[in-house]
Amino acid sequence: MPQGVIVKALSGYYYVLPEGADLRTATTVTCRARGVFKKKNISPLVGDVVTYELTENGEGTVVEIFPRTSELIRPPIANVNLVVLVFAVTEPVLNLQLLDKFLVHIENTGIDVLLCFTKRDLLTDDHAPESKEMTVSELERITRLYEGIGYDVLTTSSKLHEGVEAISQRLKGAVSVFAGQSGVGKSSLLNEMISGVDLETNAISQRLGRGKHTTRHVELLSLDEGGLVADTPGFSQLDFMELEVEGLGSCFREFAEFSEGCKFRGCLHLHEPSCKVREAVAEGSIADSRYEHYLLFLTEMKEKKRRY
Ligand SMILES: Nc1nc2c(ncn2[C@@H]2O[C@H](COP(=O)(O)OP(=O)(O)OP(=O)(O)O)[C@@H](O)[C@H]2O)c(=O)[nH]1
Ligand SMILES: [Mg+2]
Ligand SMILES: [Zn+2]
């Protein structure tokens, strides 16, 4: 039976690239999923390696899904080994709470992550108190914060074609996915990175202050220098259904070296005596914003649990 990779999922159809074919030149096989998947509550994901059967009309049926090496639920994609977490420096306003939330989810999957700040051309130098724009020095501070935790951070401008080479280099040979809010410029950046690709992009709705969800499906694209990358629709809501409160602390990378020293095993770093994480926050070794977000997420998770 032929084998392939799902490169696109749209309205119940799965587009399968036959094994060994080049995504840039080959045509994909349009497939439906076998009914049994639905019954078992399994949905094929972009990135899935599958076997398929050809049907009479030249289309196909996905028959079997091979075990996944990784799986993300939002955005829905399998078998990626790098998440490029995309946030704009402004438009939409950079929200560090949302950024930390995304990071928790990615840490929980164990997939490697690269932080990418887009729209560098919109940074301002002056410190006008009323200005909503992000300043150069503020972005430097944020970059240092996340680099200090151990994340790779890149800054780009698709408009000025800056930082595009650096990110292309980083993605070479990997299977990666662009994730982030609507309107941050994921599709714009991919258009700059990949020759011959023209993904739809759209201005942020001024009235709503957020994107219009221009990209509506997940799709794998072939990188010029080898590797695959998926564009995904932006989203702004994430919940913590797949995580236990006890596991949250380990999704904050920089807590690890301190939490080992906490007096109580399973310390939640709340009010427990001799909590080394809280001491690190007080000393400034852990950023206030990160600890604050940890507390917020913990509360949110507890409330969710109570409701179900
Ligand atoms: N100034 C500036 N604007 C940018 C840049 N990159 C993207 N934009 C603009 O931001 C808007 C949104 O860009 P998209 O690429 O559609 O954003 P997206 O992340 O793909 O959005 P969704 O598909 O809805 O998730 C468009 O109007 C782009 O022109 C940039 O580097 N600088
Ligand atoms: Mg898009
Ligand atoms: Zn503790």
UniProtKB/TrEMBL annotation:
* Cofactor remark from the record: Binds 1 zinc ion per subunit.
Which InterPro entries does this chain map to? G_CP_dom, NA-bd_OB-fold, P-loop_NTPase, Ribosome_biogen_GTPase_RsgA, RsgA_GTPase_dom, RsgA_N
| All residue ranges annotated as the EngC GTPase domain in the record | 78-236
Main subcellular localization, coarse class? cytoplasm
EC? Answer: 3.6.1.-
Keyword check for GTP-binding, yes or no: yes
Q: Which UniProt keywords apply?
A: Cytoplasm, GTP-binding, Hydrolase, Metal-binding, Nucleotide-binding, Ribosome biogenesis, RNA-binding, rRNA-binding, Zinc
Q: Which residues bind GTP?
A: 118-121, 180-188
Look up keyword Nucleotide-binding and say if it applies: yes
Cofactors that this protein relies on? Zn(2+)
CP-type G domain boundaries? 69-238
Q: For binding Zn(2+), which residues are annotated in this chain's numbering?
A: 262, 267, 269, 275
Identify the Pfam families for this entry: RsgA_GTPase, RsgA_N
Q: What class of enzyme is it?
A: hydrolase
Localization of this protein: Cytoplasm
Similarity field = Belongs to the TRAFAC class YlqF/YawG GTPase family. RsgA subfamily.
Its quaternary organisation is: Monomer. Associates with 30S ribosomal subunit, binds 16S rRNA.
Q: In UniProt terms, what function does this protein have?
A: One of several proteins that assist in the late maturation steps of the functional core of the 30S ribosomal subunit. Helps release RbfA from mature subunits. May play a role in the assembly of ribosomal proteins into the subunit. Circularly permuted GTPase that catalyzes slow GTP hydrolysis, GTPase activity is stimulated by the 30S ribosomal subunit.
The record ties this protein, via NCBIfam families, to: ribosome small subunit-dependent GTPase A
Name the record gives this protein: Small ribosomal subunit biogenesis GTPase RsgA
Organism annotation:
Paenibacillus aestuarii
